[in-house]
Design a protein that fits this description.
By secondary structure, the chain is an all-alpha fold. It has two domains: 1-70, no CATH class; 98-208, no CATH class. 66% of the residues lie in helices and 0% in strands. It contains eight helices and no strands. The chain has helices spanning 2-22, 32-43, 52-68, 72-83, 95-120, 137-167, 178-185, 190-200. The longest helix has 31 residues, at 137-167. Residues 162-200 form the HAT C-terminal dimerisation domain. One of its GO terms (cellular component) is nucleus. Residues 114-154 are annotated as: Disordered. It holds the Pfam family Dimer_Tnp_hAT.
Amino acid sequence: MDVLESVNKVLSPLQEFTDALSGERYVSVSYLKPVLHLFNETILAEGENDTQLTKDMKTTILTYLNEKYSDPGTDDLLDMASLLDPRFKTTYIRDEKVDESKARAVEEIKSLLTEQQADTGGTSSALQRPVAAAEPEVKKKQGSSTAQSRATLSDEETIKVELRSYLQAVEVDSDTDPLEWWKCHQANFPRVAKLARKYLYSCHQCPI
């Protein structure tokens, strides 16, 4: 009887989260970081009244889950998905990886916009900037690389500002559908929305 109680105590709380992560209509990948955090800090944390069997089972499950998602590539993927989910943003990203994740988001957005520009054969609306007055021909030749660097920097700074605005936006409820949230707010954060589409939407669900 003690064995059954120990097993039930460990496995019962996992049912709800298993259902949430296996639902086809939900964004599961961005939910993994919060769930792993909850497992480690609460659901599968050792309790004072736990039997040795319960403790052993919790340790075994946690070890398996943490190792399963410990691969650097997988961890980066989960961090980015979490960053782009308006419910979580940087909450479940390790402090030492927050700046790295932001920088990677900026670079990926730049890449997506460049690809869009190449596909359309012109300048993406998200990359358009006011054109400075024409400079003398000699100055153009001498400073062409500098001008290009300034343009690139301007694009990058614009992306950084938009990403910062998104991260500082009002927090949303935990039961908010992130896909619906992005449909409503893509006009506010058009560049970040492109990256959200990459990480949060399947190909047949892309409304942005």
